[in-house]
Amino acid sequence: MKKIRLGRSEMMVTKIGFGGIPIQRLTEEDAVKVVQSALDQGINWIDTANSYGTSEERIGRAIRNYDRHSIKIFTKGSGADLNTIRKQIELSLQRMNLSYLDLYQFHFVPSEAVWEDMCKNGTVDEILHLREKGLIRHVGASAHTIEAMLAVMEHPEIEVIQFPFNLIMEENGLKVLEKCKAMDTGFITMKPFGGGMLENASACIRFLLQYPEVVLDPGFETIAELKEVIALCEEDAPLSADDRAAIERLKKELGSSFCRRCGYCTPCPHDVSIIPLMTMESLIKRFHPEQILSGWIAEAVESHKNCVECGECEEKCPYKLSIREGMRQGVEAFRALPREENIPRIITV
After folding, report:
1. Nearest-CA neighbor of 88 among 130, 134, 42?
2. pTM for the whole thing?
């Protein structure tokens, strides 16, 4: 499979990687088989995160008998202080039975202000120290808002970034791409399938193949999904008339209701967890039922009781979404979930 230089990190990686979210939904045996199938078919990098449930452990088991030097392992941690991020890295290495990480990413940096705090409170310096010790080879970051992403990229040690870019979330992705090209920063495309909202693999993959500088980070639950995306990448064909028609249809369908997870609507003054409620359909597709019906997703649903219908979130939304209605629909989707049956699997990230 064709390899691409990932910016000034100088890592040579395949056009697509293996995103580590969806394998949480599988049995451990099936998860290992899907990861190994990806490696056997030529994918040479895996991207996961400390917060992705069982993902790191399953990846560790899957790669156990492979040549470590032939695989790039990327993970992420959301710690915003020195002690937390150090513990997260130690846990990631332990879970995957690794002596080093090829890329460690500050996970979901929420704002420019938080990033400034991380630079001042020793969090970033700790990562650089761990790089000097050899526990980390390269340093990167992910963010969902363009303001946070552009601020992070100003730091000279950020070699690789991960940012949402797909056929719907196009404008900001292109802005980040231009800065990546100017600074020789590697660009990992997060959410090529819109977090599960976009299910047309041909349109999604071919859209991103237009940009030779980016690499794609889709998640997979089945070997069939894996083969479909690999075939599209190897074919490297331009968008077809059908693809373009599908893109226009999706833009019309989702343009007025598609939550981009940008975070402009937050924080809620009444502590309502807006984004999980607005993206409940995607969460249902991406996570195991047990993770949805308990933990932070269930807590987000419970927080909806605090909503006083003030509308402040809608005033702040740059996409003019009907957030109050979207949150109600999210709660309804959660309440309608079967408590003991599995949720259908689809391509998700």
Report:
1. 130
2. 0.84
